[in-house]
Amino acid sequence: LGVTKVGKEMVVGTSQGLALLTSDGLVHCKGLDPPVHTRHSLESLHLLVLATGGDGLPSQLVSISTLALSLPLTPVQVTPELATCHTFSAQENSKGKVFLCATSEDLVVILEWSAKRGAFVLRNKFSTDQPCRAIEFTEQTVLVGTTKLYEIDLKTFSAEEFLDLTNPG
């Protein structure tokens, strides 16, 4: 379902979980069996954030340590705020702050990495009119697109409707 380079490893999201691409072919990673349909490597945190599920399974947002890909994996739920994860994106800005924006069918959550807690913490959540179709980070904001375009400030975490795409006039 997709490949991500993590250090020198090639990590493959498959319909049976994660695998490593080696000279011997695909080697399944134990501990994570649901399909992995989206993945994002956060190198500075040694984390791989994954959206799992599909084919009748609920889609969840989990993270795993990239330091132990050859060991049985221990997925950790990123946030209890999302029962399911439709799509997500993450970014580390120039000041070293790491943000994650994740969506379900009608909910957007903004999370920030807390080194003190060793986890992502919720900064804002809000409901949307339609499922999210796009997430794009800038240095100071994150743009979330449904039938409307929302702009979320990464300092105050306030969300504003930026543009109604159903009524461009």
Question: How many distinct helices?
Answer: 0
| Helix/strand structural class | mainly beta
β content, as a range? over 45%
- Poorly predicted spans: none
Trace the largest sheet across and list its strands: 1-2-3-4
CA-atom Rg in angstroms: 16 Å
User: What's the N-to-C terminus distance?
Assistant: 39 Å
Average pLDDT over all residues: 88
Overall morphology: globular
Give the helices and strands, then pairings:
Layout: E1 2-6, E2 9-14, E3 17-22, E4 25-28, E5 36-42, E6 47-54, E7 57-65, E8 76-77, E9 87-92, E10 98-103, E11 107-114, E12 119-127, E13 134-137, E14 141-145, E15 148-153, E16 159-164
Antiparallel strand pairs: 1-2, 2-3, 3-4, 5-6, 6-7, 7-8, 9-10, 10-11, 11-12, 13-14, 14-15, 15-16
Q: Keywords for this structure?
A:
mainly beta; 169 residues; 0% helix; four-stranded antiparallel beta sheet
